[in-house]
Amino acid sequence: MTTAQGDVALLEDPVAQELLGSRQLARLAYTWRDGTPRVVPIWFHWTGETITFGTPPKAPKVKALQERPEVSVTIDDESKWPYHALLVRGLASVEMLDDVCPEYAAAASRYFGPEQGQAWVATLRGEPMARVAVRPTWVAVLDFETRFPSALTVTEVP
Questions:
Q1: Are 136 and 8 in contact (CB under 8 A)?
Q2: What distance in Å separates the CA atoms of residue 31 and residue 114, rounded to the nearest whole number?
Q3: Measured between alpha carbons, how far is 68 from 31 in angstroms, rounded to an integer?
Q4: 3-state SS record for 138-149
Q5: Residue 5's pLDDT band (boundaries 50, 70, 90)?
Q6: Residues facing residue 63 across a β-bridge
Q7: Residue 133 CB: number of other CB atoms within 10 A?
Q8: How far apart (Å, rounded) are the C-alpha atoms in residues 57 and 95?
Q9: Which strand ranges, in their side-by-side order, compose the sheet holding 84-97?
Q10: What is the CA angle 136-15-6, rounded to 5?
Q11: CB–CB of 70/91 below 8 Å?
Q12: Are strands 51-55 and 45-46 parallel, antiparallel or unpaired?
């Protein structure tokens, strides 16, 4: 039986694992302090439990995430057809650090390659960073082969 959309077990799906290990940007959607939606492209690292981001502590999203931790994250790859997408809803936690968070360093190595990633992180050492960790509570995978958006899914009418 296929795992239902919404089940966090979908994080183990091969499409989800492919995207979680990819160099694609995540898109972090959150609610701004005035109640309006925001979305930002951002590097990420999958820890096996959380989708984690490093960001400057003064980034506007930090305060908004502390006040309203409900978020969505999308990671997709449109470079091939049919394209793949991972959709995640969850709760964000923010931790202030005195240095670069390990997940940001891992993301830098993945996006830039090990040598350039280490060089980039070295320029940030000693600077404070906010660690944003999103714990998934709902997950969907779209591969347009076996899993489609709900609007395209045919269901039987009783």
A1: yes
A2: 34
A3: 7
A4: EEEEECCCCCCC
A5: confident
A6: none
A7: 19
A8: 9
A9: 37-42, 26-31, 70-77, 84-97, 129-142, 51-55, 45-46
A10: 35
A11: yes
A12: antiparallel
Encode pLDDT of 29-72 as tens digits: 999 999 999 999 999 999 999 999 999 999 999 999 999 999 99
User: Rounded to two decimals, what is the model's pTM?
Assistant: 0.87
Q: Rounded CA gap, 154 and 151, in Å? A: 8
* pLDDT number for residue 148: 53
The DSSP string of the chain is -PPPTT-GGGGGSHHHHHHHTSSPPEEEEEE-TTS-EEEEEE--EE-SS-EEEEE-TT-HHHHHHHH--EEEEEEEE-SSSS-EEEEEEEEEEEEEESS--HHHHHHHHHHH-HHHHHHHHHHHTTS-EEEEEEEEEEEEEE-SSS---GGG------
